[in-house]
Design a protein that fits this description.
By secondary structure, the chain is an alpha+beta fold. It contains 4 helices and 6 strands. It has a 6-stranded antiparallel barrel with strand order 1-2-3-6-5-4.
Length: 122
Amino acid sequence: MTTALLRTLGGQTVQVRIPLNTTAPGDPAQLGITGTPTDVVALAPVIIRRDHNKKTDTKRHELLISASTLAALQEITTSSDARNFFLSALSITVEGVELRVVSFEADEFSGAPYLYRVVVQE
């Protein structure tokens, strides 16, 4: 039901860049000079609330994401798993701009999450 509401409100798509849990063999990996392998996960529908702080000239966005969307794409069904997913993300691309995750909150009903609020900024 939350997904339908977000879609009705004009939900958009964001890309979440997450690190993969693979280890490359060889000396470069042992020395820590290899790049971190990543994957990009597209999440939709997402409502983007924009906030521009004119004093510091930073763009800040609140992303509203249905828990069922994350469960379908990443098999994440608990608030703690969703928190780990978003806080470990390397970046979230919103309208072509890579942003970093600042905070995460989950709205729950009867102990089950239904909406995630992720705040990102430059």
